[in-house]
Amino acid sequence: MFRLILLIALVTGALTSVTALAQERITLVPLVSESYGIESVVPEDWVDVGGGIVARQASATDATLLAQQSAPVPKDDVLTSLLPQLGLSEPPESTGAHQGGALNWTLYEAETLGVAVDLALAEEDHTTYIVAFQTSPVERDALRASLFLPVLDAFAPLEVSDEPVPYDIEEVTFANGEISLAGTLTLPPGGGPHPAVVLVSGSGPQNRDESLGGGIAIRPFKLLADALTRAGLAVLRYDDRGTGASTGTFSTATVSDFARDAAAAVGYLRSRDDIDTNRVGLLGHSEGGLVAAMLAPGNRDLGFVVALAGPAVNGRELLKLQNQRMFEAEGATEEEIAAQLEFVEALFGVVDDPAAIEDLAHERAIEQIEALPDEQRESLGDIEQYARSVADQLAQQYGSAWFVSFLNYDPTEDWAQMTQPLLAIYGGKDVQVGADQNAPALEAALRRAGNEQYEIVVLPNANHLFQEAETGSVSEYARLPAEFTSDLVPTIIEWLKDEGIIHG
User: Fold this and answer.
1) Neighbouring-strand partners of residue 306
2) Distance CA 126, CA 137 (A)
3) Rg (CA), the chain
4) Any idea what the Cα angle at residue 45 is, between residues 39 and 47, rounded to 5°?
5) Among residues 245, 306, 244, 233, which one has the least CA distance to residue 275?
6) pLDDT given at position 143
């Protein structure tokens, strides 16, 4: 999901000094970002701080930065997601439009915590493109003319070359009630009928490639679709509801809603003459593993399941360990970890009370701010306003229907009724769905089911995205190559062969 990190800071020093900075000549150099699928320009000497953001860093308190990103969600959803960071309670009115070299931009302006923000959004081919620029109010006009507008003129979606592939590619749509889900079906050569699999994504709004945003270049489902189709399996991957070319609303959906979408995808494949209805399966990543657990018991339409980092414990237990491991991987102290776990436990008790969630989040934000060094704390400006902004954002996240459904769902009983062939793969360095917590729980459940056709594999150096990892931390994802660890795909293909789903 798109996330703009506003590096809010107080800009100090004489007015003449910041004006001089603004009037300095800015040399723009080409930018190509495969992570966001864009090409543009950036200031030559600014510092890349990750996530599509470059910062001027002229001083310790310099708040000037430029962000260029994309997200597979509608423009209005992007704008709504930015409101807490902009210090706003409702979407701002547009201040106008700007015709760039490739895109027509809608412009917005805001001032928050002493920082002026210019925002431009453009929507094309089911993707929203974002350019955000922030600086001190006194520099805004000069830098808007010399930087922000030239970036809008240079910005363009990255053209992707279509290399020949040894299989057919078909753009498809299928329905779940009134929701139209759009995806890509890749088919091995020949008329079939082919064995087939549906790919189901993890949490958060993602397109059919499971693009993750935040500067993370790997597209797990695009890689899997290519490899599995070359191995003889038809693969259907689709945009989550409310993302890409799919209709519906993502923000109000629950885990059960996503399971119904996946069931519709399975039904669509089974309706096709070129698909072998006895060999249609589901491959779920992370939350997609929960979807598999929901759909599999007693489901004759589902012939097999592959679960990648699939949870096998309830949401509360998963999130407690996840928070601990994620903080550990980022180098947090024991005191910081203990405080976060205390917050998580308290949160579990108030998930049905939005006001209580906001109060709890506000209290936690104040605690974290007060623990900052003096210089960092002072750079945030109005502490209360900043804390309320953070609390509002967290309240929206933790009070959502999806979060409540995730906390309340325990997949154990569903896994304990699953009799289809199952391959479950975990990453040994996964800090989000820990192998040591979930693999034993899954095996115990499958034994209760009397399932004799399962295999559970732990890839020692894989993270949650099955990249070859050093620490497994979430912040490391964007720094790693956009490829899987070398043993993931061969493990899946060999298992499919062993089960007779594809032929070697």
Assistant:
1) 283, 423
2) 33
3) 24
4) 75
5) 233
6) 93
Element at 424 (helix H, strand E): strand 422-427
What one-letter code names the amino acid at 350?
A: V
Check if the beta carbon of residue 472 is closer than 8 Å to that of residue 463. yes
Phi/psi of residue 231, nearest 5 degrees: -85, -5
Residues 6+ apart with CB under 8 A from 235: 185, 186, 196, 197, 199, 224, 225, 228, 229
Cis upstream peptide for 193 (omega within 30°)? yes
Q: Determine how many CB atoms are found less than 10 A away from the CB of residue 297.
A: 16
Residue 222 · residue 285 · CB < 8 Å: no
User: With contact defined as beta carbons under 8 Å apart, do 468 and 480 qualify?
Assistant: yes
Yes or no: say if 98 and 155 are a contact pair by the CB < 8 Å rule: no
Candidates 443, 452, 212, 401; CA nearest to 312 is 443
230-284 pLDDT, tens digit per residue, is 999 999 999 999 999 999 999 899 999 999 999 999 999 999 999 999 999 999 9
Could you give the domains of the chain? Answer: 15-154 (3.40.1000.10), 168-314+409-498 (3.40.50.1820), 315-406 (no CATH)
- Tokens describing residue 142: 């000069």
Question: Over the stretch 434-464, which tens digit does the pLDDT of each residue have?
Answer: 999 999 999 999 999 999 999 999 999 999 9
Q: One-letter amino acid identity for 40?
A: S
Run of H or E residues at 175: strand 168-176
| 3 state SS of 314 | coil
Which of 181, 168, 205 lies closest to 267, judged by CA? 181
